[in-house]
Amino acid sequence: NVTITINGNQYAVPSDLTVLEAARTVGIDIPTLCFLKDINEVGACRVCVVEVEGARALQASCVLPVREGMVVKTNNQRVRNARKTTVELILANHNRECTTCVRSKNCELQSVSEELGIRDIRYTGAKREGKYDNFSHSIVRDSSKCILCGRCVSACKNVQGIGILDFVNRGFETTVGPAFEVSMKDAPCIYCGQCMVVCPVGALTEKPAIDKVWDALEDPKKHVIVQSAPAVRAALGEEFGYPIGTNVTGKLASALRNLGFDKIFDTNWAADVTIMEEGTELLGRLQNGGKLPMITSCSPGWVRFIEFNYPDLLDHLSSCKSPQNMFGALAKSYYAEKNNIDPKDIFVVSVMPCTSKKSEIERPELAVEGVRDVDVSITTRELARMIKEARMEFDKLEDGTFDPFMGDYSGAGVIFGATGGVMEAAIRTVADVLTGEDLENVDYTAVRGVEGIKEATVNIAGKDIKVAVAHNTKNAAIILDKIRAGEADYHFVEIMACPGGCVNGGGQPIQPASVRNVIDIRAERAKALYSEDAALTVRKSHKNPEIKRLYDEYLGEPNSHKAHDLLHTHYYA
Ligand code: HC1
Ligand code: SF4
């Protein structure tokens, strides 16, 4: 410990803290804008300045280590004025269309201005001209709102190991964007959206698609079906004041029903289908000397990453479409046929924790005989906006259920949304198939948790199956380098593009730095899924009666000819 004086009072604090952290441990908050723990610790915005005895200039507290005997003032006139000046200068150069900004009420610049009591802006002058780029299917970049905090740059470069975004131009013209400010559509961006969820303002947002959903719901000719992804229910509640990690499956179903969809189905159901197809593909590769390790293909950001960066390894990817697209393909074939509806009249909406899914649905090779699988994909955040627009009181909704036929799911389908979940779900089924038994233990905890890379050996029917799980693309690259070098002896690998898997996807509710700095939102949201899994009676995909029916009455066997036509795909180098 060291002794430090903050605002005239002495405290003993751990010696490895910064002044910012030390102050917070004793109940004194210092405002920040650019700081994001472990991701962006650069002291760039200077909103967190403090006065330190003996130092002439004010110091950025987020990067200033505590020292024995240090005397700090966090709240005198000089400090307050400096912070106000800094924020006013940012505001003077900011496109302040707050009332119509998608981040209004969830904007850290807005909060900090309010907390500092800024009522007018003393600076006027030229504003940097902004670039507005909405050409991709996933991301909108509006540099007129960028405050140059660098969080997105760090998330893309240091967390994801990609580096699409960086500071470009100089001086007054400095901005953040892809090299040469090309469109995000033309950069090798994987659309993971990890830059968006750390953006404190409205400079990076998802490409909105709500209007297309409202239009479809109004169209009497359309039969509108909604599916929602496993991870949505683990985070949607945050938009309505629930604590992080609350599972809101029942309210989600009721909200979707109130919005007027014709059928409320579940991507979890399609996750069970994926396990049948992918598990069978794995068994086939193991038995017939196919390409190993086989790697999961459900995370579209991850698929883009391998296509851009490791095209020589594409034959390791499972040929399975993602659950999102399997669902769409089956809605427009199996469901259409059983209910005598023309597939052309069916409109499939997906609610996803993901921004890359918006681009995935546009991949032409995923269409079946010219009919696309999914018509519109919206994020968890966009669904929350629809619920608010419809003026539902979310917390007062009764717990509802999804519709039968494509809405019942196993616990295996639920855990897809957390890193390691697809692997665990697959092992549950593969183990039963290989042993010919109904194994009682279904908890493969070695592949759970937020460690970057997890490895395990599972002994099934006397055979050792070696597996690995990686989340975020920086960790994915480590595994791929091993495979490329011939140093990996895994049989099966799960990769998710986002840190923590889909629960922390780029389309999930945005938590400010003040929350992200103290709570591991990945772990909390994952718990919401593992507890739902544990509470279900059916926890293996192949035991789901609706899945048995799908194969008995429609597809025949997993990996059958029909299954291949509808549920499998190929990739591009
Ligand atoms: Fe995911 Fe998946 S788990 S990719 O994270 O395989 O987005 O939730 O829907 O498709 O099921 C996302 C989540 C999601 C697919 C499934
Ligand atoms: Fe980087 Fe992902 Fe953002 Fe693209 S979407 S710029 S890859 S963080």
From TrEMBL:
<dbReference type="Pfam" id="PF12838">
    <property type="entry name" value="Fer4_7"/>
</dbReference>
<dbReference type="InterPro" id="IPR017900">
    <property type="entry name" value="4Fe4S_Fe_S_CS"/>
</dbReference>
<dbReference type="Pfam" id="PF02256">
    <property type="entry name" value="Fe_hyd_SSU"/>
</dbReference>
<dbReference type="InterPro" id="IPR009016">
    <property type="entry name" value="Fe_hydrogenase"/>
</dbReference>
<dbReference type="InterPro" id="IPR049830">
    <property type="entry name" value="HndD"/>
</dbReference>
<dbReference type="InterPro" id="IPR017896">
    <property type="entry name" value="4Fe4S_Fe-S-bd"/>
</dbReference>
<dbReference type="InterPro" id="IPR001041">
    <property type="entry name" value="2Fe-2S_ferredoxin-type"/>
</dbReference>
<dbReference type="InterPro" id="IPR019574">
    <property type="entry name" value="NADH_UbQ_OxRdtase_Gsu_4Fe4S-bd"/>
</dbReference>
<feature type="domain" description="4Fe-4S ferredoxin-type">
    <location>
        <begin position="178"/>
        <end position="209"/>
    </location>
</feature>
<feature type="domain" description="4Fe-4S His(Cys)3-ligated-type">
    <location>
        <begin position="78"/>
        <end position="117"/>
    </location>
</feature>
<dbReference type="InterPro" id="IPR003149">
    <property type="entry name" value="Fe_hydrogenase_ssu"/>
</dbReference>
<dbReference type="InterPro" id="IPR036010">
    <property type="entry name" value="2Fe-2S_ferredoxin-like_sf"/>
</dbReference>
<dbReference type="InterPro" id="IPR050340">
    <property type="entry name" value="Cytosolic_Fe-S_CAF"/>
</dbReference>
<keyword id="KW-0411">Iron-sulfur</keyword>
<protein>
    <submittedName>
        <fullName>[FeFe] hydrogenase, group A</fullName>
    </submittedName>
</protein>
<feature type="domain" description="4Fe-4S ferredoxin-type">
    <location>
        <begin position="137"/>
        <end position="167"/>
    </location>
</feature>
<dbReference type="InterPro" id="IPR004108">
    <property type="entry name" value="Fe_hydrogenase_lsu_C"/>
</dbReference>
<feature type="domain" description="2Fe-2S ferredoxin-type">
    <location>
        <begin position="1"/>
        <end position="78"/>
    </location>
</feature>
<dbReference type="Pfam" id="PF13510">
    <property type="entry name" value="Fer2_4"/>
</dbReference>
<keyword id="KW-0004">4Fe-4S</keyword>
<dbReference type="InterPro" id="IPR013352">
    <property type="entry name" value="Fe_hydrogenase_subset"/>
</dbReference>
<keyword id="KW-0408">Iron</keyword>
<keyword id="KW-0479">Metal-binding</keyword>
<dbReference type="InterPro" id="IPR036991">
    <property type="entry name" value="Fe_hydrogenase_ssu_sf"/>
</dbReference>
<dbReference type="Pfam" id="PF02906">
    <property type="entry name" value="Fe_hyd_lg_C"/>
</dbReference>
<dbReference type="Pfam" id="PF10588">
    <property type="entry name" value="NADH-G_4Fe-4S_3"/>
</dbReference>
